[in-house]
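anyone seen this seq b4? input:
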Amino acid sequence: MSDQLKAEVGRAVCEVIESGMRLGIGTGSTAEAFIGVLGEKVAQGLDIIGVPTSERTAQLCRELNIPLSTLEETSELDLTIDGADEIDPAFRLIKGAGGALLREKIVAAASKTMYVIADESKLVEKLGAFGVPIEVNLFGMAATRLAIKRVARQHDLVDDIELRMQGGEVFISDGGHCIMDASFGHIRDADALNISLLLIPGVVQHGLFIDMADKIFIAGRQGVKILERNK
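predicted toks r here
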């Protein structure tokens, strides 16, 4: 997505934010464009409190003087605004390419509502062309990887599971875990896969977000469209 489209969708979603709201603030390049617009609104008098989904987001918010809290202090949120890597017609998402998926999901689950900001290229018929990040415990990583591969085969998916590295070292998430990137291919039954992955003892969380998004703000050549999930 171009910087211009990111700014447009950020401005569009900011229109729904009201003073007094408790906001979950997402992670990623599109979320960062939203944070920039939010910082402008706060400087103009918008009175909100934000709970960031990553250390990177927290840093950006502090730089823009966006008031922050934690889920320990503010355990119920009105709205979370975050990006997505893929979105299917049932508003199921793949998220977490940046490795913040655990905090993203915890914050979204603590919110009454979740709005997703993305560009039209993120809309897909079936999830899975984009890899699914899986946050796993450092203890027993090899055994957990084998268990994920078994689950993939049980669901007739590709079992290409790679440990994420960064600068020659194992990538460690803000939560202190590592990330397995699963290239499953097109996922036939995302709901069932969601459950199967969570039943693996070493899996902390994964990047399939099921029944969490309520509205999607989609930026495209024709401007920003708002899609609403049928419940």
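The longest strand covers residues 111-119. The first helix runs from residue 3 to 14. kinda curious what u guys think
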